[in-house]
């Protein structure tokens, strides 16, 4: 990553808060997008987005519609940088946004049974599944504190056809788009924006993502606008997926050096330790490139029949240990994003009970708050 100028539109607002050698024209920032806060007046900006702006009559024109809304913020934990809240306790503390009932009234109606039905449905409709194209050699068992390498051979053998699946072929170019050290800034080039767009284009039309889109809209986990003809504007789901997975935030030194996609579908290193790394496609490529050493399974492998497996394991990446991790093996990227996204909204920051091939499985998600928005911090099968 070499340039900080070619950021995608949804990240442009991060520039004023990032360290950058390119001079910034603050006069162009006339929107509150990604700027809702209570940190006080910033004289370099032409309009303000803090709680005092209404008192001083210097709010940006979209302040109310951006900062005083629960759109996309339902069940977000309390954040004192926000002028109003959208969680279950806001009534008690009298700090709810005015539209909390419009956007969040049905959040609690997502039942465990509905999550189980949804997860089985998207697994059976995982059209780019590679369960029959990937073989596992789990070898010996190990544990979190074990030092012995219980697996002298690689874990995965992947047939070439797997990498030629439509969505996986669009996933592969993204592997080179990230700096794995969380303390270093991610700078997005035009080519990387194009690759990200092509990947989203590919997954959003698949049955798994279409079913996730319908579930999220039907349950009002994401609230869309309306077209003039009365139909829902389902671009709201794509916009939300793009933001929560590809939006940049900081894990270290206030550096915009991380995203949910990088953390889950690739991997990161913070303070010398491997974090994230929950996708079999990247795992297999790093094994082939001799950058990863699989060291054994932990516990029992969950068999998803012809659709793949779920594995808990230990490995070294670039000579750094990940003492315990888990991942789906053989499932498509759209299946994982669909499942994780629904759990991210339906059970934010908590275990999300699903059912896969008749087996009860928990999905664990974590989120990161930044300037009024919520992003995927991590997502993985908790077995």
Automatic annotation (TrEMBL):
Q: Signal peptide location in the record?
A: 1-20
Q: Which cofactor does it need?
A: Mn(2+)
- InterPro entries attached here? ENDOU, EndoU-like, EndoU_C, Somatomedin_B-like_dom_sf, Somatomedin_B_dom
CDD domains associated with the record: XendoU
Q: Does the keyword Lyase apply?
A: yes
- EndoU domain boundaries: 111-383
Q: Could you tell me which Gene3D superfamilies the record lists for this protein?
A: 4.10.410.20
Q: Which segments constitute the SMB domain?
A: 28-62, 63-108
Molecular-function annotations in GO? hydrolase activity; lyase activity; metal ion binding; RNA binding; RNA endonuclease activity
Q: Which UniProt keywords apply?
A: Disulfide bond, Endonuclease, Hydrolase, Lyase, Manganese, Metal-binding, Nuclease, RNA-binding, Signal
Q: Where are the transmembrane segments?
A: none
Family matches, as PANTHER family = ENDORIBONUCLEASE-RELATED, PLACENTAL PROTEIN 11-RELATED
Family, according to the entry, reads as follows:
Belongs to the ENDOU family.
Q: How does it assemble?
A: Monomer.
The protein, known as:
Poly(U)-specific endoribonuclease
